[in-house]
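Milestone M4 deliverable, item 7.
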Amino acid sequence: MTIAYFDCFSGIAGDMVLGALIDSGIDETFLKKELKKLPLAGYDIEIKKVECNHIAATDVTVVVTEGQHHRSLSDIIDILKRSTLDNEVKTQSQNIFYSLGKAEAKIHRVDIEKVHFHEVGAVDSIVDIVGSVIGVSKLGIEKIYCSPLPLGHGFVSCDHGILPLPAPATVELLKGIPVYTVDRKQETVTPTGAAIIRTLAYQFGEMPHMKISKIGYGRGKIKSDYPNVLRVFLGELEKTRKKKK
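Output delivered:
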């Protein structure tokens, strides 16, 4: 069985997931061709091979080339339904957006349909989420395992004003998932990253017994004195032998 282990020593964000999957072997041309199956215009994707604290990684940036508007959850679901993507990719992407929408709706005490993904952020989220699901499918990953998630502290400025870290929507998404605090005044886990891993991960904890075949690194946008990358191990799940009594 082909599995992936997400080693989130620096946290997780949507662009980090997509970057790590590309670094693991997803062809850039294939990914962009698949994303063009979405009825979504006005953006470009910049994919660069970079070095982060002496670690070679892949950086993904969504560049908006035309004016965008606020999109509700139903707007994004409609984009997915009207696309010509594989049904499994559509379903998984919808599930991630539903998780994100539910968390935002609960935190702000509004109906889920009143949750809006604002302008550039909406395009970023769509590309990161759908691109990540495409990547998981293309790499043939059958199960995803993930490490506990590190949570930074401080505050972040967003459309809703100044919010504490971890962001309230992130905390809502991380219910039931093992986390720990780190002494970093920054957003180590974003709502998009939390929604992706909550939806796709089969299990959280230590790395399972596996035979590693590929390793990918996706760089985050925050500059730091430590390697701000997400590491993904790909390989085959190994059966553990029971000790004889």
